[in-house]
Amino acid sequence: MQSSSPELVCSTRAQKSFDQAVGLFSNMDRNPSPPSSDGEEEDVVPEDSIGNTVYSKHWFFSVLTKLIEVISPKKEDSELNSVEEQVELDEDMENDICKVWDMSMDRDVALFLQEFNAPDIFMGVFAKSKCPRLTEICVGILGNMACCQDVCMSISKDENLGQMVLQRLCDSDSPTLLETSRLLLTCLCQTDVASIWVETIRESPSVYDCICFIMSSSTNVELLVKIGEVVDKLFDLDEELMLNWIKKGSCQSVVQPADDSRDEVPDFKIVPCLLEAVKQICSDNSSEGLDVYMHILQLLTTVDEGIHAIVQAPDNGKETWSLLYDLFCHELCQPDDPPIIVQEQKTVLASILSVLSAIFASQTEQEYIKMGKNMPLIDSLTRVLQNMDECEKKSVDISNKPKSEEAEKLGIAEEDFHFKILKDICCELLSNMLQELSKENILEGLKQGHLNEQKCSCAFQNLLPLYLSSVENFLEVLKEADQVLAGNLRKKIPSSRLQE
Length: 500
Description:
mainly alpha
């Protein structure tokens, strides 16, 4: 006998939970008080209020009952709608359920909704409703409820609900996808339940394809940022899951098109999908989104499989290098920017340079890495170091002043930590690039202004003494191109830091 599909089994279980929730409301009083708003409504009696709020229990019962009626119409209504499903939400119903959405951020309201099986009703919505707006709102309410730790634990332990939520990632409605991503991120950020969701996602093959499809095709930047945050959190929490996703793409996709067409769904690979999302985010100038996706790429480079995924296909490596090169050299930390800009950009700069460094170290033989084409990168690296030196001087001045708050000291320490990471990455890449320079490269760099005495001095000041051999090699080649400049630079470096 052929087994039922996971979607069918999940829908059956959702129906059972929904039926149980319906039973809870079957004998409720249908004459509710409205929610308290601007004082114009009737006062809610204490017995009818939810926790310490002034919200009416009976009003919530009324809305949830109407919600049940929307997705479980009477027989005659069902026959009328048998050909064409309802896709629009009644205006009054939408207003009421949106009020529930707003109020569900309150902890007492969230606990009340949980106590009276609202998540089971929402499962019925997911299984039955063809109204995208209703689905979006119900996922949004769950997302608000999940901000309450106790409710989040209860939601997370419900396997049926977890599967139904993950199925929303296959939705074609962007607002629903956004709320689903927000709900997932809320749960993943709570340490008590994060492992439950990671395991559920690992056991749901469709999640990979759905997320890759969103990243590669969506033009909704808000959605791309939120789905990126989900991926970033997943990779940060579980390296095994990240490795599994890196390796995927060679087997046939498990996602079925929403219209049940027979067209083959593309086999997604994680790196091209990430790059497509980055391009869309860059077109919208979303600095927050850029930071998220650069960190995802950086996480990929922490494992050999991730580096291979970036560089193993020539197109992948070239496209990643070109995209990050353009961002670093032409968008971030520009010549007319004040030095302090490096403070704002330190995390995204560190991620970009980390990926560029990994590509450079593994692909020096590739044409797109050749130094003749990448002299501006050395110029930009030196500019970052110069700006960091300026910021550090000001930081020393500030640190010498009396501190009134311990938090301020901790903030400065954190800034120093992030700065150190950025400087280490910057110096490593610069050192590797200097060793690859030929006489012709240096002559061209001098001609174009990418190299000069001031920039080289700044570079050496940061590279020494750790990268002594790199500086030595560079000076030897520089001597062939410009003996005077090489001599001047040697004189500026203390003999204790550089062999004569």
